[in-house]
């Protein structure tokens, strides 16, 4: 394997002080006429947790891929302990002591947890020895994994644990973390913070990318802020507020979500009655006696720890999993339990799944083609049975403009967008359809503060226009901000909804953990009263 190569050249320095563990100087990265990084300087010191902040599309992920050997800079250099090095590939970066936890999982679906980890481990660390290391690390750091589980059967939170564990097993000097808590529960995030603080005390450097600014303020002692590919500032996050950090990132104040005037609750639009579905796979979760009601003007939040049936509930609501009794699922009074997703879309429903890359969007298809994917069941058709290409482009452009999707080129492939920008596109595509019912799973996963506020406001506005909304989220702050009531999914069972104003994060957290103190509330209510909305 080709290793990182030292290069004899004068050492550039961005600041005075001790030689940094790793540095990047004058980094420029161009993709055709688009410049993703424009003269970026960054220094990372041993023993510190350093935040890299910026809007979606600011150039953070591009810079990280350069440091990890996935991309070669158009200009500029990377240094290690004062020596300029070239990183021709990720293997070279790992040999140098650089590990990375990706926002978009780089896992092989058909392999097991252990096999995915073994792909980046030396040959001598395999079999029982590797399984023992995985188990020990899980005990030490609270990152439990089942080595024999196939990845396709895991929730997003469990997949994130694989990425973190296989990075830590390489004993890195620098750990790059790209949105590591975006799919973790509060408890899982707290365990991760303890791990990161321990790694910093051991003298390792950590580069932390997150749009959760309260996390940044807690963990990080330095921050570098990017905007439009350039460094626009640096600060100590502990001396800032979340709002001041957000303002530095976007260049202006970030507006809070404002609740529209409370409208009268409309007619019931979505209903589940005692829905039971078997687990779709060996390690999936069965749904047990799930009931809910959502009327026009309501936002119902569904909280829960990853792997407790969120994906299965979404599939049941969207029509990707069919019910034996069609009457178990109703849209505007019509039984749809036996209808697929296209038929439900034609009845005025829209759906945003958790996994944007591959489930919500086809990464190799253009944005206009992706706009067509969910709209074609309800869009005007030509004689040939296809939506006009121009109409698809117009639709994509409306989404791009309304949700400020940052992109390169007029109609790029979805996979070329940053994670947050692809999320904005997918959510915008569904909301602009003005659905009567919207089911959205992890709506602001991996988006910056301004974009998250925009998405949440769009959801609130859709409810104010009479839409019935179900928001499945592991972000309790998000649910308490926009949902009128919250129910908890635990082990495939949905609790009765509780008005947001009458509960607390602690009470919801007990339900999420399956606490015996909260067990009575986990029994489905025989008749669910309408929830309130903002």
UniProtKB/TrEMBL annotation:
CDD domains named among the record's database cross-references: ABC_Carb_Monos_I (cd03216), ABC_Carb_Monos_II (cd03215)
UniProt entry keywords in alphabetical sequence: ATP-binding, Nucleotide-binding
Entry annotated with the keyword Secreted: no
UniProt cross-references to SUPFAM superfamilies, sorted A to Z: P-loop containing nucleoside triphosphate hydrolases (SSF52540)
InterPro entries membership: AAA+_ATPase, ABC_carbohydrate_import_ATPase, ABC_transporter-like_ATP-bd, ABC_transporter-like_CS, P-loop_NTPase
Keyword DNA-binding annotated: no
Gene Ontology MF annotations: ATP binding
Boundaries of every ABC transporter domain copy: 22-253, 270-516
Pfam families in the record: ABC_tran
Family: Belongs to the ABC transporter superfamily.
Protein name (database record): ABC transporter ATP-binding protein
């Amino acid at each position: 394997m080709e290793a990182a190569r030292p290069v004899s050249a004068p050492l550039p320095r961005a600041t005075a002080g001790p030689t940094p563990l790793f540095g990047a100087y004058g980094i420029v990265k161009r993709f055709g006429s688009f410049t993703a990084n424009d003269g970026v300087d960054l220094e990372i010191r041993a023993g510190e947790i350093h935040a890299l902040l910026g809007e979606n599309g600011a150039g953070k992920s591009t810079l990280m891929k350069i440091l990890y050997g996935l991309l070669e800079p158009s200009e500029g250099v990377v240094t290690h302990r004062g020596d300029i090095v070239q990183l021709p590939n990720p293997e070279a970066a790992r040999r140098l002591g650089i590990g990375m936890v990706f926002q978009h999982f780089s896992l092989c679906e058909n392999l097991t947890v252990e096999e995915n980890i073994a792909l980046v481990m030396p040959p001598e660390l395999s079999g029982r020895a590797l399984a023992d290391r995985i188990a020990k690390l899980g005990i030490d750091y609270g990152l439990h994994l089942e080595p024999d589980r196939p990845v396709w059967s895991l929730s997003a939170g469990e997949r994130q644990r694989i990425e973190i564990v296989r990075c830590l097993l390489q004993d890195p000097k620098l750990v790059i973390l790209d949105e590591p808590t975006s799919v973790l529960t509060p408890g899982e995030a707290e365990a991760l913070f303890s791990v990161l603080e321990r790694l910093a005390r051991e003298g390792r450097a950590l580069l932390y990318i997150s749009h959760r600014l309260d996390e940044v303020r807690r963990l990080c002692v330095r921050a570098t802020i990017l905007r439009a590919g350039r460094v626009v500032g640096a600060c100590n996050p502990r001396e800032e507020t979340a709002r001041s950090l957000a303002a530095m990132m976007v260049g202006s104040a970030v507006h809070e979500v404002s609740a529209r005037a409370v409208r009268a609750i409309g007619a019931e639009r979505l209903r589940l009655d005692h829905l039971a579905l078997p687990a779709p796979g060996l390690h999936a979760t069965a749904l047990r006696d799930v009931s809910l009601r959502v009327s026009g003007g309501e936002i119902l939040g569904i909280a829960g720890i990853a792997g407790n049936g969120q994906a299965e509930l979404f599939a049941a609501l969207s029509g990707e999993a069919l019910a034996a009794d069609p009457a178990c699922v109703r849209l505007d009074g019509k039984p749809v339990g036996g209808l697929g997703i296209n038929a439900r879309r034609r009845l005025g429903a829209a759906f945003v799944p958790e996994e944007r890359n591959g489930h919500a969007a086809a990464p190799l298809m253009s944005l206009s083609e992706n706009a067509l994917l969910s709209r074609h069941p309800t869009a005007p058709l030509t004689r040939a049975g296809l939506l006009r290409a121009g109409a698809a482009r117009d639709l994509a452009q409306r989404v791009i403009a309304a949700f400020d999707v940052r992109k390169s080129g007029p109609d790029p492939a979805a996979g070329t967008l940053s994670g947050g920008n692809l999320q904005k596109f997918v959510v915008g595509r569904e909301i602009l359809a003005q659905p009567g019912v919207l089911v959205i799973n992890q709506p602001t996963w991996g988006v910056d503060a301004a974009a998250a506020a925009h998405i949440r406001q769009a959801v609130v506005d859709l409810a104010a226009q009479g839409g019935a909304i179900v928001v499945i989220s592991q972000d309790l702050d998000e649910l308490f901000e926009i949902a009128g009531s919250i129910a908890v999914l635990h082990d495939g069972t949905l609790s009765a909804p509780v008005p947001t104003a009458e509960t607390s994060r602690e009470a919801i957290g007990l339900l999420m953990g399956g606490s015996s103190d909260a067990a009575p509330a986990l029994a489905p209510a025989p008749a669910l009263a309408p929830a309130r909305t903002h």
